[in-house]
């Protein structure tokens, strides 16, 4: 019997060893390791190695991986030429999709490899930073080989060596958002990979999917909420009014997590432990407490907590990142999860080819 589930809700489409998302227990693991724990001990490069290879790296292995990432940071001459020619009103996600598309030469043909995954992961922060500086009429800042992946990203954006606290905060965010099971963009990437198309084409599919507001494109709502609450004379009253009038408060609730989003918890814990000096962060923590208390009072059975977007926004604000960088930065992190899944798809591939039920009329 044919079964139909709109949006494939509840359908298991893939068996994976990359990560596990337990929405009931609020647990996210990468290759069996708790992600909150990983952020306490691993760098971005080490976590990426774990997702790509399935094992934690030795010192020698991680050094080699770091070097390969550094070697692949620069744009190709063609990418640089095209970047300068793209219209100013093109969105950053469209720019990323276009420039990643230009990666697709003969070196990417054939089955996907970790080398290709490294190349794509290495270049994306440079695309984002160069485009951002060109739009601001500033000289681009070339990648600095002494710096780590996350440190170099911030350096290329600002032209200044970033504070350690800022690097750690962003690194935590980027590790936490590297991977999240069968979300829409990862699924899209695996569908393209399942046709035995190349890795660049699969990633271009994923970027186009990530761009949509229902997936990667909604964090500005959290800023709008915090800005509104900042100037409210009676915050609790404003929050209650919003909830009672049916508004969904941005940064709260989650489709999968029916308990605390472990990424939000880990992000908050890290931020608190590092004592990032930012009044917005402390304000966000106050707002979280108030909103969660009021949601528990007004919607007692719904189990609504902060999701990852809430503290991601707090982090990006603390780093003075423009909101236009939020989804692109998420994309730079998720490149690791996408490529890990594309590699896994190729290991034991079956083309995705579901069916549809015709509901039109017969003529
Ligand atoms: N604020 C107030 N009430 C909420 C919220 C919220 N953020 N989220 C859910 N509720 C309430 C709903 O009003 C509803 O109450 P009711 O049954 O009394 O009418 C109940 O909780 C269930 O809501 P649904 O929308 O059905 O919950 P679902 O699990 O389908 O939706 C979603 C999850 C879409 C994330 C929702 O919580 C939401 O819109 N949150 C705000 C947007 C947001 O922060 N998105 C980012 C998610 S994280 C990520 O994508 C990486």
From TrEMBL:
Transmembrane segments: none annotated. The keyword Chloroplast does not apply. Pathway: Carbohydrate metabolism; tricarboxylic acid cycle. InterPro entries: Citrate_synth-like_lrg_a-sub, Citrate_synth-like_sm_a-sub, Citrate_synthase, Citrate_synthase_AS, Citrate_synthase_bac-typ, Citrate_synthase_sf. One of its GO terms (cellular component) is cytosol. Keywords: Transferase. One of its GO terms (molecular function) is citrate synthase activity. The keyword Transferase applies. GO terms for biological process: carbohydrate metabolic process; tricarboxylic acid cycle. The active site is at residues 254, 309. This is Citrate synthase. The lineage of its organism: Bacteria, Bacillati, Bacillota, Bacilli, Bacillales.
């Amino acid at each position: 019997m044919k079964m139909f589930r709109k949006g494939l809700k509840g359908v298991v489409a893939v068996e994976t060893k990359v990560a596990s998302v337990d929405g009931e227990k609020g647990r996210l693991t990468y290759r069996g390791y708790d992600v909150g724990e990983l952020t306490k001990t691993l760098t971005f490069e080490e976590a990426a190695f774990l997702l790509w290879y399935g094992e934690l790296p030795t010192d020698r292995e991680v050094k080699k991986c770091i070097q390969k990432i550094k070697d692949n940071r620069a744009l190709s001459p063609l990418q640089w030429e095209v970047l300068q020619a793209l219209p100013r009103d093109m969105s950053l996600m469209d720019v990323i999709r276009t420039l990643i598309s230009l990666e697709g030469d003969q070196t990417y043909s054939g089955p996907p490899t970790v080398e290709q995954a490294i190349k794509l992961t290495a270049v994306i922060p440079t695309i984002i930073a160069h485009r951002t500086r060109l739009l601001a009429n500033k000289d681009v800042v070339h990648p600095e080989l002494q710096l780590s992946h996350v440190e170099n990203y911030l350096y290329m954006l600002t032209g200044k060596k970033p504070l350690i606290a800022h690097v750690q905060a962003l690194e935590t965010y980027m590790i936490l958002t590297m991977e999240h099971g069968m979300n829409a963009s990862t699924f899209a990437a695996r569908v393209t990979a399942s046709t035995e198309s190349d890795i660049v084409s699969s990633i271009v599919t994923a970027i186009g999917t990530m761009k949509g507001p229902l997936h990667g494109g909604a964090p500005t709502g959290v800023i709008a909420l915090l800005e509104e609450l900042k100037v409210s004379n009676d915050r609790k009253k404003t929050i209650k009014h919003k909830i009672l009038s049916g508004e969904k408060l941005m940064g709260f609730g989650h489709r999968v997590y029916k308990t605390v989003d472990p990424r939000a918890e880990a992000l908050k814990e890290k931020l608190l432990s590092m004592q990032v000096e930012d009044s917005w962060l402390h304000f966000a923590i106050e707002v979280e407490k108030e909103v969660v208390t009021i949601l528990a009072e007004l919607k007692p059975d719904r189990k609504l907590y902060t999701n990852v977007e809430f503290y991601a926004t707090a982090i990006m604000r603390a780093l003075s990142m423009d909101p236009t960088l939020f989804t692109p930065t998420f994309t730079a992190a998720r490149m690791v999860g996408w490529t890990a899944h594309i590699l896994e798809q190729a290991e034991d591939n079956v083309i995705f080819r579901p069916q549809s039920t015709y509901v039109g009329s017969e003529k």
